[in-house]
């Protein structure tokens, strides 16, 4: 009986309503702590080739510029609630991911693959949405279970921290989470210089090259890429936002040239 009471009590304090009306088992402060701990473990693990800010200042100036443009759009719910940070990973992988709390990680392979800055902004908007809507915590809860995550937040299961840091790049979101992140990316970009349907450009490039079956983990194949393109453009029509490309070709090429 004592064990059951101890297990139930945390739910009473942690089950909270977020700003957008969604429910989450973890508080914003726990998300912040979670993100900091995972960031430290990612840095210490050696599994991710994190680029140094001091060694690649131009590359970080560019990724910061794009990220801040979205964060300062006025549409990010938790803009002031989290210590937003972005990191570049030197690896030829089409990927990006976000931790709770929030820390954003972008692979150089993705940046080099994309045709323009609007597409990258669309992908960044998608990842920021996962963090802003707190999908990361939801997905980790589904993967590991509430009890294990509570043990982690209480400092009782440090091995779990290592497991999470090793698997967070391939975190599986639900269909509804992916759809919401796509739609929210459009909302974010609608108040920036970028094509608000920038994320659709990424899918269109994959489809044009016949890679629809190889969509990276961070933009998983559910819903189907064709449907996602349609849905993103439908959302852009609904928002009545610009789908014209920004005039950032030279900046984006300079960004690519600054990468290793």
Strand portion: 5-15%
Name the shape in a single word: globular
Residue-averaged pLDDT, rounded? 85
**Strands side by side in the biggest sheet:** 3-5-4
Please work out how many helical segments DSSP would assign. Answer: 12
Low-confidence stretches: 1-17
Distance between the termini: 58 Å
Number of domains: 1
What profile does the largest beta sheet have? 3 strands, mixed
The helix/strand order is HEEHHEEEHHHHHHHHH
Instruction: Compute the CA-based radius of gyration.
Output: 18 Å
Query: Structural class of the helices, strands and pairings?
Result: mainly alpha
For the secondary structure, the number of strands is 5
Helix-residue proportion: 55-70%
Topology, please?
Layout: H1 2-14, E1 16-17, E2 23-24, H2 28-45, H3 57-71, E3 85-89, E4 96-98, E5 103-107, H4 108-113, H5 117-132, H6 135-144, H7 146-153, H8 158-167, H9 175-189, H10 198-208, H11 225-239, H12 249-257
Parallel strand pairs: 3-5
Antiparallel strand pairs: 1-2, 4-5
Helix pairs in contact: 2-8, 3-5, 3-12, 5-9, 5-10, 6-7, 9-11, 10-11
What distinguishing features does this structure have?
260 residues; 12 helices; two-stranded antiparallel sheet
Describe the protein in words.
42% of the residues are buried. The protein has one domain (16-257). The chain has helices spanning 2-14, 28-45, 57-71, 108-113, 117-132, 135-144, 146-153, 158-167, 175-189, 198-208, 225-239, 249-257, and strands at 16-17, 23-24, 85-89, 96-98, 103-107. The protein is mostly helical. It is built from 12 helices and 5 strands.
């Amino acid at each position: 009986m004592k064990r059951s009471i101890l297990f139930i009590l945390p739910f009473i304090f942690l089950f909270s309503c977020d700003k957008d009306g969604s429910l989450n088992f973890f508080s914003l402060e726990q998300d912040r702590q979670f993100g900091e701990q995972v960031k430290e473990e990612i840095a210490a693990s050696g599994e991710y080739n994190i680029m140094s800010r001091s060694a690649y200042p131009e590359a970080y100036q560019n990724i910061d510029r794009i990220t801040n443009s979205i964060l300062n759009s006025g549409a990010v719910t938790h803009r002031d609630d989290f210590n937003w940070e972005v990191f570049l990973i030197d690896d030829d992988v089409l990927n990006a991911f976000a931790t709770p709390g929030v820390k954003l990680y972008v692979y150089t392979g993705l940046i080099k693959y994309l045709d323009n800055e609007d597409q990258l902004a669309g992908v960044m908007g998608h990842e920021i949405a996962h963090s802003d809507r707190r999908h990361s915590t939801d997905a980790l809860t589904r993967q590991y279970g509430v009890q294990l995550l509570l043990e982690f937040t209480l400092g009782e299961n440090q091995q779990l921290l290592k497991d999470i840091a090793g698997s967070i790049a391939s975190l599986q979101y639900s269909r509804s989470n992916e759809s919401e992140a796509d739609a929210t990316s459009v909302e974010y970009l609608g108040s920036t210089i970028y094509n608000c349907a920038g994320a659709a450009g990424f899918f269109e490039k994959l489809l044009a090259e016949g890679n629809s079956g190889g969509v990276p983990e961070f933009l998983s194949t559910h819903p189907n890429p064709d449907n996602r393109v349609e849905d993103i453009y439908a959302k852009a029509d609904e928002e009545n936002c610009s789908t014209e490309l920004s005039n950032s070709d030279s900046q984006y090429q300079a960004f690519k040239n600054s990468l290793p």
